[in-house]
């Protein structure tokens, strides 16, 4: 879990420079296995109503900044519901 915590800290401090593989690790840890998976796209289902998914894309080996921020918001929401 320490590695995930380190990645989360980097995501919070510098969301524009997160490796796609690291973003996938965090999403897998918090949201489980991706519902849809391709080489450049992953879609994770969320347990709440509304827009119940998080979509992440690989952009030249990095996660897209706005998607990193969406993942962080989803993690906060998930932890609030626990």
Chain-wise SSE layout:
Blueprint: H1 2-13, H2 20-31, E1 36-37, E2 41-45, E3 53-59, E4 62-63, H3 65-81
Antiparallel strand pairs: 1-2, 2-3, 3-4
Helix pairs in contact: 1-2, 2-3
Describe this protein with a few key phrases.
single chain, 82 residues, alpha+beta, four-stranded antiparallel sheet, 4 strands
Write structural notes for this entry.
There is one protein chain. Helix content is 50%, strand content 20%. It is built from three helices and four strands; from the N terminus they run ααββββα. The longest helix has 17 residues, at 65-81. It has a four-stranded antiparallel sheet with strand order 1-2-3-4. The mean pLDDT is 90. The protein has helices at residues 2-13, 20-31, 65-81; strands at residues 36-37, 41-45, 53-59, 62-63. β2 (41-45) and β3 (53-59) form a beta hairpin. It is an alpha+beta fold.
- State the shape: globular
Low-confidence stretches: none
Determine the N-to-C terminus distance: 18 Å
Please report the total strand number as a whole number. 4
Largest sheet: 4 strands, antiparallel
Strand content: 15-25%
State the helicity in percent bands: 40-55%
Mean pLDDT: 90
Q: Tell me the radius of gyration.
A: 12 Å
Strand order of the largest sheet: 1-2-3-4
Number of helices: 3
Order of helices and strands: HHEEEEH
Structural class: alpha+beta
């Amino acid at each position: 879990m320490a590695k995930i915590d380190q990645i989360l800290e980097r995501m919070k401090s510098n969301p524009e420079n997160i490796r796609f593989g690291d973003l996938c690790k965090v999403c897998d840890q918090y949201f489980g296995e991706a519902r849809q998976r391709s080489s450049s796209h992953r879609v994770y289902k969320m347990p709440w109503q509304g827009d119940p998914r998080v979509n992440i894309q690989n952009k030249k080996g990095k996660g897209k900044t706005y998607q990193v921020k969406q993942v962080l918001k989803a993690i906060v929401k998930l932890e609030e519901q626990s």
